[in-house]
Amino acid sequence: MSAPHNPAPTTAIDAPGGCGPRAAEGVPGGRAPAPRRRRTVRARRGRDRRARVLLPAPGAPRITGPAPATAVVGGGVAGLAAATALAERGVRVTLYEREPVLGGRLAGWPTTLRDGTTVTMGRGFHAFFRQYYNLRGLLRRTDPGLERLNGLADYPLWHRSGMRDGFRHVPRTPPWSALGFAALSPSFPPRDLTRMRPAAALPLLDVRVPDVYDQLDHVSAHDLLESIRFPEAARHLAFEIFSRSFFADPRKLSAAEMVLMFHIYFLGSAEGLLFDVPAEPFPAALWDPLGRYLRLHGAELRTSAPVHSVVPAPHGGFTVTLPDGPRHHDAVVLALDVAGLRRLVADSARLGDPAWRAGIGRLSTAPPFLVSRLWLDRPVARDRPGFLGTSGYGTLDNVSVLERWEGEAARWAARTGGSVVELHAYALPEDADPDIQRDCLVRQLHQVYPETRAARVVDERHEWRADCPLFPVGGYRDRPTVRTADPYLVLAGDTVRTDLPVALMERAATSGFLAANALLERWRVRGQTLWTVPDQGRSRVLRGLARLAHRV
Q1: Nearest to 413 by CA among 374, 361, 447, 442
Q2: Which of 108, 411, 117, 118 is nearest to 284 (CA)?
Q3: pLDDT digits (tens, 9 = 90+) for 276-324
Q4: pTM value?
Q5: 341 pLDDT exceeds 70?
Q6: 549 has a pLDDT exceeding 60
Q7: What is the pLDDT of residue 272?
Q8: How far apart (Å, rounded) are the C-alpha atoms in residues 340 and 74?
Q9: What distance in Å separates the CA atoms of residue 204 and residue 161, rounded to the nearest whole number?
Q10: If you count DSSP H runs as helices and E runs as strands, how many of each does the chain have, helices first?
Q11: What is the SS3 assignment for 393?
Q12: Contact criterion met (CB below 8 Å) for 251 and 220
């Protein structure tokens, strides 16, 4: 049975920097909201004054009649966002997660080291950028001041050739951010700058969604950079780091996704490229508190509960089948990774129409990636940053020294005199041998931080995964949207199309709120206010040049 829902009023945190809801716009007589165009108004909170806020459809603040029972399938960022927005407004939410813990690809779980210490292992470092307005709004439910996040001083980048870059001293506001980076970065030598083709780069200056996909989804990120003639050093040191954030080879990644990344993090937002990280492992800092919050709002959280199928019921709603039998729900949010979504749709007869099912079946996952965490018997050098992006070292993409920012690792390091180091390798070959790749990462670490050659590995953990979405060239049209042909079946996740300038974790959180809003609109309840970076280029002159170049 579902846990009893909490009938008390709740507070929705709608603004990136605040904790109060905006004034609700009610619907007289309880009538269903009329069809509407998407409306945006200028945000009044957050560092970027041009950030945009998307208001939900008008409606009541909470469910007033019998509370509809809603299944949220998937306990990652998207599912937790959807469950939060629904439970806060009086919906009876049951969240099903196949793993024993919440968090999805940001989950953590306990493991015991050889020295007897219980620590938390996960799938690796994640950067919480200041542009992640909706994800940060979700976290503010249990941490209003975001005190469980630590800001890192810089986003340093190292190339094996000795070239080094960073973003600490780069201006945050475009276009000064781009100009400042080019002026300060050693990867933009004057001779190479004169060889660039500015006309080919103009699409970077006026990114609109979904127009950017019409313009560039048929081109790879690699080919776009080739056409612009970006300096080779800049391409390897900075731009490939963006593309590999999608765990993909730039030759297989849609240029539209890479250009959208430039807009979100660099050319379109004044938040800058510095970021925060959790001060403790993900469960303690993020998901355990949010789980308690959801239960206080009446949500039932069922972990270790894989959903086998979701089938439309003859008289409305859906039959959700689990290992312990079927359960009926009035609405369903599917917030799964690509493989899980494909599998569930394939096993759920009559769910969706044939075209939608075929599109789901064509979704693909990015190549494998490896996360290696090493507990060393001695510290790395004191001046090593908490996080470092790398290029030219073979498969090594970044290095984290966890005790620089995570409390659990800092306590272990202080007690033992050692270090906790995490290594990432993205977009590895499909047939790569995990054991060989582990050894390669350690050898590459020795090249980046030579003092680690003398360190003994006290213990180690490795995660080999291949479950991130791939955004291939020409794949945009196959990606599902939040809404489906059935108004009570919605989707969420970082693979879902939102037609908003969001990506990665922020796309997951935003799509989860959008999924909740789609259901709440059917029930005449006002949903979650959403925020994004500006939805177009910041300079009117540059926008005009970009449009002119596109027509030519």
Answers
A1: 374
A2: 108
A3: 999 999 999 999 999 999 999 999 999 999 999 999 999 999 999 999 9
A4: 0.89
A5: yes
A6: no
A7: 80
A8: 9
A9: 28
A10: 18, 23
A11: coil
A12: yes
